[in-house]
Design goal:
Elements lengths: L11 E5 L12 E5 L4 E3 L7 E7 L2 E6 L5 E7 L4 E2 L12 E4 L3 E7 H10 L1 H24 L5 H12 L5 E3 L4 H7 L4 H13 L3 E3 L3 E4 L3
Helix pairs in contact: 1-2, 3-5, 4-5
Length: 210
């Protein structure tokens, strides 16, 4: 597969994998992307489905007027561009927010596998259903009117069992994901810190559970 036509050879590398990441008989290839590199662009011919192994990817759609609309930020463990299985082209850009590792499942091979083995299709559909549930949770966050409470709930969803969230990407990107400007986000974080609901560290945030 060709790397993105706006990336240099040093920005991406692609290698074949063992079958441990296979969907049925479809073995993915691995692509390493440097921060800022496009995995695909809006209008590019669809080549398959993707899975983020490491890093962070942002899906952005360019409107007819030329403005950008952030659609979703992909976290490790998520499949994305599922609609490409039913479309001839991608409907948005996918940009690496930091150095990232993506697995690519070829479109033709994957469709053939699902036609040949419906059990694989059902397992994959279940995985996507759980992923959609997570997306709905994030959309629900946007309905919380209090910026401070929205940030606290978003942090609780991201932190581990100890209450620690290791920040990935920038806080500005985090704010955009939950529907807040960076100014509103910083004010909310300051309020949470003053009330001792969170502790900000150099590499993350500790959230105190009530």
């Amino acid at each position: 597969m060709k790397p993105d036509n706006q990336s240099s050879a040093s920005d991406t590398t692609e290698t074949a994998l063992s079958d441990e990441r296979a969907i049925g008989s479809v073995v993915p290839t691995r692509r390493d992307l440097r921060a800022g590199t496009a995995l695909f662009r809006q209008g590019d011919a669809s080549i398959g489905l993707f899975y983020l192994l490491a890093g962070r990817m942002r899906l952005v759609r360019v409107t007819p007027s030329g403005s950008e609309v952030a659609l979703h930020t992909i976290s490790p463990g998520e499949f994305f561009a599922e609609a490409s299985l039913f479309s001839s082209s991608y409907h948005c850009d996918a940009i690496a927010l930091g150095d990232s590792v993506v697995l690519i499942y070829g479109k033709k091979a994957l469709i053939a596998e699902f036609n040949r083995n419906p059990e694989d299709l059902w397992q994959f559909a279940g995985r996507l259903a759980r992923q959609v549930q997570g997306l709905r949770t994030r959309l629900t966050l946007r309905q919380i009117r209090s910026a401070t409470e929205r940030v606290r709930q978003a942090l609780l969803l991201r932190c581990d069992e100890s209450g620690f969230w290791k920040t990935e990407g920038t806080l500005k990107q985090f704010g955009a994901e939950i529907g807040l400007t960076h100014e509103a986000l910083y004010r909310a974080l300051a309020r949470l810190e003053r009330s001792q609901a969170i502790i900000r560290l150099a590499d993350g945030i500790v959230v105190k559970r009530k």
